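Now for a concrete sample entry.
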Amino acid sequence: MIGETLAVCAALAYGLAGVLIVRGKATARGDNGAFLSVVMTAVMSGLLWLGWGTVAVGDVVTAEGLRAVGIFALAGVLANVFGRQSMYRATEMIGAVRAGLLRRLTPLFVVPCAFVILGDIPDPVTLLGGGIVLTGVLIYMRMPKRMAPSAPGAGLGLALGVLSAVAYALAYTFRGLGLDIAPDAALGTCIGALVGGVWILVRAVGGKGVRHGWRHITADRSPHHLQAALALTAGQLLQFFALKHATVLSVSVLGTLEVLFSALFVWLITRSEPIAITRLLVASVMAMAGTALLVL
């Protein structure tokens, strides 16, 4: 149950991060700290690898090691560029709870990804658990119109939330493949964050020019942005370590608990978005039931 426990802790960190992202948007002058969160992930995971890593530098430069590096790099682009950036924008547009719910579609996309890439064949219980979780998400998403976000960017926010789920599903799958070759979560996280950070930097500088591009990705360093970056870093590291002890599907479905934590933090900290309590309770029970079936 070590992997499952780590996955739940990751969901807690992600739930807090979503609320902090919304909170930081009010003072954002650039990317709302998204690049900062990737840099923090690279630094912290790199320190973990240097201090307690299980894969040495010599092992990395072998043919198999370089193959793992390539897989981790691909997973890093998927998670840190497409997944994280889309998640930031979706959270800003539609709120932490609804953005978190859309990321709960990740298990739906993980099933075909894991089958095609890893050869993992889900059993009927896994499919039933995932189906229950998905049904709970859909129940909440069909909330009354008076409670749904009415901002002009709500439609785009929903689309970005789905894109984030797809990107994370692919990232989880490739991370599992990389860990089979080089079983060092800290190394894999560091490589992924470094490659993702370079991608974001090059895209910002190329699209906005050196001065404006650099300013866009480094301007936001307030306490709220730092806290969000730290929470996201903790979530990603915990999730990566969870993959060493649990299956891709288990980690993904346990991540559905993120929305429960998001709702709790919204209520405790910001009260920044409407929450359909009855629907959320139903969705929560279904998420827990689906998760229980998955990890039996």
Notes: The mean pLDDT is 85.
